[in-house]
Amino acid sequence: MRDPIPLDLARLRRSCSECALGFLCLPAGVDAEDMARLDAVVRKRRPLARGGTLYRPGDALRSLYVASEGSFKTVVVSAEGEEHVLGFHLPGELFGLDAVGSGQHRCQAIALTDALVCELPFARLTEIAADLPSLQQQLLRVIGQSADRDHDHVDVLTRRQAGERIALFLQGLRERLTRIGRHGDEFQLPMSRDEIARYLGLALETVSRGFSRLQDDGVIEVHGRRVRILDPEALRRAASGGDCQGSSATRACDRA
């Protein structure tokens, strides 16, 4: 009988350049042979330059992806050539799940920055997950988190006030960065204002004004793409669309 050993997350991160696959395997206890099998799957990496395409609509599902460095956007392009941003994918977040149902990708994944991508061949991942219940549970958890983000996007688009959409976007980004172990109160936006506008269903000018107003109200501080959250509670209230009485976020909720 093989002796189980704890999963060496540090070893995985070294082999995957700090790819945050802890979401898949953090609580798992696996033996040495299974560790080697999992490590062999997550070790596949490839660089992608900013603006490079990882997959396109119609491409067959071969792998799921995690950016160990850099960020991605997923988009669809209308018949008129207009780009609609479906989501942003931060380092350590699993993506490519749009193809799991049909076996083909329904959108295009584009690198927002120079990126280093871990590829997890889907067939091999599901094979290993079938033998490792803890990995299977974590994979389902990650898929659930992706579904939650899709639901959050729909929630954003139903908000009537532009200021509320912008605050909700920043609040969600703050929470996601914290979840993957990054600093959620001060960060560099990997996406442009125009890409944020396309994600939120707003005009570029509206997004720029919304950022400026949140800054004027002391909720955030902005320098180019660098954002610092000065008042997390005010941002939360602005994002919730609830009672903002007594907060500088009141004006941010009502304007834009």
TrEMBL record:
Domain Cyclic nucleotide-binding: 26-110
First-listed, main subcellular location of the protein, grouped into a coarse class: cytoplasm
Subcellular localization: Cytoplasm
Keyword field contains Zinc: no
Cellular component, GO annotation: cytosol
Alphabetized UniProt keyword annotations: Activator, Allosteric enzyme, c-di-GMP, DNA-binding, Repressor, Transcription, Transcription regulation, Virulence
UniProt KW Transcription keyword: yes
GO MF term set: catalytic activity; DNA binding; DNA-binding transcription factor activity
Occurrences of domain HTH crp-type (ranges): 160-233
SMART domains, per the entry: cNMP, HTH_CRP
Quaternary organization: Homodimer.
Protein name: CRP-like protein Clp
